[in-house]
UniProtKB/TrEMBL annotation:
<dbReference type="InterPro" id="IPR013653">
    <property type="entry name" value="GCN5-like_dom"/>
</dbReference>
<dbReference type="Pfam" id="PF08445">
    <property type="entry name" value="FR47"/>
</dbReference>
<dbReference type="GO" id="GO:0016747">
    <property type="term" value="F:acyltransferase activity, transferring groups other than amino-acyl groups"/>
</dbReference>
<feature type="domain" description="N-acetyltransferase">
    <location>
        <begin position="447"/>
        <end position="569"/>
    </location>
</feature>
<feature type="domain" description="N-acetyltransferase">
    <location>
        <begin position="159"/>
        <end position="298"/>
    </location>
</feature>
<dbReference type="InterPro" id="IPR016181">
    <property type="entry name" value="Acyl_CoA_acyltransferase"/>
</dbReference>
<dbReference type="InterPro" id="IPR000182">
    <property type="entry name" value="GNAT_dom"/>
</dbReference>
<protein>
    <recommendedName>
        <fullName>N-acetyltransferase domain-containing protein</fullName>
    </recommendedName>
</protein>
<dbReference type="InterPro" id="IPR053225">
    <property type="entry name" value="Acyl-CoA_N-acyltransferase"/>
</dbReference>
Length: 569
């Protein structure tokens, strides 16, 4: 399976959480995900995303969770491309990852997709994930400020929890962190978030705070501290017992992380009955190092679906392009009918508003269909965008591009893909709107013209020379969402048809052997051409050079050769 990063919708986070329910002692499992399900951001600039490699995450539980505090710029390499998400005023990001499967290959590939353009911390990963993180840093060629900072994970068995009776309820609040040894100019917001979004406990005497313990997003006890004057009085143990009782009451395991060299804390936890069950690690890349790295990276930024119409309208509706207005409009229509379709439109570094440089990725089972275009005469930005594609043996089908892009795709094939591309060329025919308006529709006796129906997809696909596994689904969508025409005999049998390809052109033209030489091919072309012409769009068609019969028919109708088009896979 090729790794890729898919955004798990928030309403499916509980599904991911429950996959990890079998091990409540794991610091990057159930309780971590539960924390962020209930997480309340302190500002709209704080964002959280959970990514996985594929739709089977309810089975493998594989995820990368990213918390971006104001303004991290997040870059991910998909199995197809690099995705860049911009958040304003960047400061830092926190990364969590896990999988319930023994195999770490997919998680390792997914993490190597990650390239945060800010200070970031990979948090609380287990010993078994150390090689995954090491591979990430190696692949990024980035030194770390902190490498595998370890902490012992303590667990308090339920049988050892001592109930701590209290007659009062602690007044829990956040104040300036004068006594937290790891404080910084940014740490107040961090601690506020811990208290706001999780359990915490403070030890008070006459309203004054003398000691405290928080619970981290991992679900472990953290930030335990007692003021000097109250040490050796059992205050730390009292706080731990109190918060342990609260956590145990929710059904969670009581866990704590302690630095190995902190002998006093270790002794206290062990005296209370905590047992060491694991070691977890943290690694850091500072912002200054990432800044130099970001200058070297081009990336593909996903264009939100709400902006697809703006992109489409940059292109001339009348331009007979294979990857212009009609292609973008086709996929706008598709996702309006099926929002869950795996269709994405990408741009280089988020720059598409002026020159309209884009790449459309359509996942069609065995292949990813790729469409691309630019209004810029300089093809170097488009070339850079295509260079962001991940190397692959046979994953891509570059679909129906014009001749000016042929050198670009040949360059991509030789330089960035792992095997030589197989190219197929076609003649790009065009009929002016004035010509199409003269077309007449004279239907032979015994023949009825109508739109194709979904049930015709099997027939169309079976005879299509370029069919492939799952291509019938592609044909169904062409029938459902695009203009088409079919000819039926007196028994209702489909005997000829013509569909419209995603690039807006005529395609899949076919006449059954039993009904050839009746002029049905020409009739299909004329009928569908008039439908497209009525939409105010260009009438175009690709024809294989060796298909002399089709070429003769199109030219007899008045279609003109205006270019060549190519398919490469």
């Amino acid at each position: 399976m090729d790794s890729k990063l898919l955004d798990i919708p928030r309403d499916q986070w509980t599904i991911l959480r429950d996959v990890h329910a079998g091990d409540r002692k794991n610091l990057t499992g159930y309780d971590l995900i539960e924390y962020f399900i209930n997480w309340a951001p302190s500002s709209s600039a704080e964002t959280i995303k959970i990514y996985t490699t594929d739709a089977d995450f309810p089975d493998h539980g594989r995820y990368i969770l990213i918390v971006a505090l104001p303004s991290s710029s997040l870059i991910f390499e998909d199995n197809l491309y690099i995705i860049y998400l911009q958040h304003s005023v960047a400061q830092k990001a926190y990364v969590y990852l896990n999988t319930v499967k023994e195999s770490l290959e997919e998680l390792q590939s997914a993490l190597c997709i990650l390239n945060l353009q800010t200070w970031h911390l990979i948090c609380g990963y287990e010993e078994r994930l150390k090689p995954v993180v090491e591979h990430y840093w190696t692949a990024r060629r980035q030194p770390c400020q902190l490498v595998h900072q370890d902490a012992l994970v303590y667990h308090l068995p339920k049988s050892a929890i001592n109930k701590f009776p209290r007659t009062d309820t602690p007044n829990l609040y956040c104040r300036n962190l004068e006594h937290w040894p790891y404080r910084s100019d940014k740490s107040l917001a961090l601690i506020t978030g811990f208290i706001k979004n999780n359990f915490s406990a403070g030890f008070f005497e006459t309203g004054k705070l003398h000691g405290w313990c928080l619970r981290s997003p991992h679900g472990s006890l953290s930030n335990l501290h007692v003021l000097t004057a109250y040490r050796r009085a059992g205050v730390g143990s009292t706080i731990i017992r109190f918060i342990a009782e609260v956590i145990e009451g929710t059904g969670s395991e009581v866990l704590a992380t302690v630095l190995p060299e902190n002998e006093k804390s270790r002794n206290m936890f062990e005296k209370l009955g905590f047992e060491v069950i694991n070691t977890v690690y943290w690694s850091v890349v500072p912002e200054t190092q990432v800044g130099s790295m970001s200058e070297k990276i081009d990336s593909l930024v996903e264009i939100p679906r709400g902006d697809w119409i703006k992109l489409r309208d940059l292109y001339d509706k009348q331009e007979p392009s294979s990857h212009g207005y009609m292609c973008i409009n086709n996929y706008i229509n598709w996702v309006q009918h099926e929002p869950e379709l795996p269709i994405r439109i990408l741009s280089l570094n988020g720059d598409w508003q002026k020159e309209g440089t884009f790449l459309i990725s359509v996942e069609m089972g065995h292949k990813h269909l790729l469409f691309f275009n630019t209004l810029n005469d300089d093809l170097s930005p488009l070339t850079k965008a295509l260079e962001c594609l991940k190397p692959s043996n046979d994953q891509y089908l570059f679909f129906g591009y014009r001749s000016r892009f042929d050198p670009v795709i040949r360059h991509i094939g030789k330089t960035f893909l792992t095997k030589e591309l197989s190219l197929t060329d076609g003649i790009w025919y065009y009929a002016t709107k004035e010509l199409v308006s003269t077309f007449t529709i004279e239907v032979p006796n015994g023949i009825r013209l109508d739109n194709l129906s979904i049930k015709d997809a099997e027939t169309v696909n079976e005879i299509w020379p370029h069919r492939h596994p799952n291509s019938v689904e592609f044909v169904r969508r062409l029938i459902q969402y695009s203009e088409n025409v079919g000819a039926y005999d007196e028994t209702g049998k489909l005997v000829s048809w013509c569909l419209r390809l995603p690039v807006g052109s005529l395609g899949l033209l076919q006449v059954l052997e039993s009904h050839k030489r009746l002029g049905l091919g020409s009739l299909m072309v004329r009928a569908l051409s008039k439908k497209i012409n009525d939409l105010g769009e260009s009438v175009v068609a690709p024809v294989v050079p060796e298909n002399i019969a089709s070429r003769t028919m199109f030219e007899k109708l008045g279609f003109q050769q205006i270019d060549k088009v190519y398919w490469a896979e």
